[in-house]
Automatic annotation (TrEMBL):
Residues 103-168 form the DnaJ homologue subfamily C member 28 conserved domain. Residues 44-60 have a biased composition (Low complexity). It comes from Durio zibethinus (Durian). Pfam families: DJC28_CD. The gene is LOC111311790. Residues 34-66 are annotated as: Disordered. This is DnaJ homolog subfamily C member 28-like.
Length: 233
């Protein structure tokens, strides 16, 4: 009787232990599923949150593209209006400025053939150079006053002075170079110092001239190495 009771107790304890193992294993197996499920929920939530900025970015890019297209259309229209009437509407066919120049030349020749340049006012008479229609009225008046009094603008006088000094300086440099070629290196060195000082003075005048001269009439200064290289040739 005692042995039966002991066997029953052992059997019941083994069942309890096995059931506890089963429940523990099921918990361990189910817990990753729960964690995976949580990660899925988190991933789905993140994907849903990231989809909103993507949609807004695409809409903003479309809006920017539309604005860019409209601006490019306006620029094309403005550039098209700059073309002669013969070339408007076919901007892709215009390859260079040569095409526009050809159109202008064709117009000139066509006008000459029609005689539009005949019987123009002032034909056969000397040109009136007292006034310059392309110059500023104030400057034009000033230049006429200077011309009547036998004077010239400052930049004209400075231009004459610079050219005179440059020619004299080059003659002196040639004389010094001749002395060097004859073997008198001491005289060459002494003259070089004086010539370089004169060169700086000329370049200062050139710099001042370029500041006051009308646009397009500027000149370059002198360079010692370049002037010496001209003599070596």
């Amino acid at each position: 009787m005692a042995t039966r009771l002991a066997r029953k107790l052992l059997a019941s304890s083994s069942l309890v232990s096995s059931s506890s193992l089963i429940t523990r294993s099921t918990v361990e197996i189910s817990s990753p599923l729960v964690s995976h499920g949580g990660s899925r929920l988190r991933w789905s939530s993140s994907s849903s949150s990231s989809s909103a900025p993507t949609a807004s970015n695409s809409s903003s890019s479309k809006r920017e593209k539309k604005i860019t297209d409209r601006l490019s259309a306006v620029i094309d229209a403005v550039n098209d209006r700059k073309l002669p009437p013969e070339l408007r509407g076919q901007r892709n066919a215009v390859r260079s400025e040569t095409d526009i120049i050809n159109v202008v030349e064709q117009r000139i020749w066509h006008s000459m053939e029609e005689g539009q340049f005949e019987n123009l006012p002032g034909k056969g008479k000397p040109l009136n150079l007292d006034t310059n229609p392309h110059a500023d009225p104030a400057e034009d008046t000033l230049y006429r006053i200077l011309s009547k009094n036998g004077c010239a603008p400052e930049w004209v006088e400075l231009n004459k002075e610079i050219r005179s000094k440059v020619s004299e300086w080059r003659v002196a440099l040639k004389i010094a170079w001749t002395s060097k070629c004859n073997g008198d290196h001491v005289e060459w060195i002494e003259r070089c110092e004086a010539l370089k000082m004169q060169l700086r003075d000329i370049n200062d005048k050139v710099f001042r001239y370029n500041l006051i001269v009308p646009f397009g009439r500027q000149m370059f200064g002198l360079k010692w190495e370049k002037e010496v290289a001209r003599l070596e040739e």
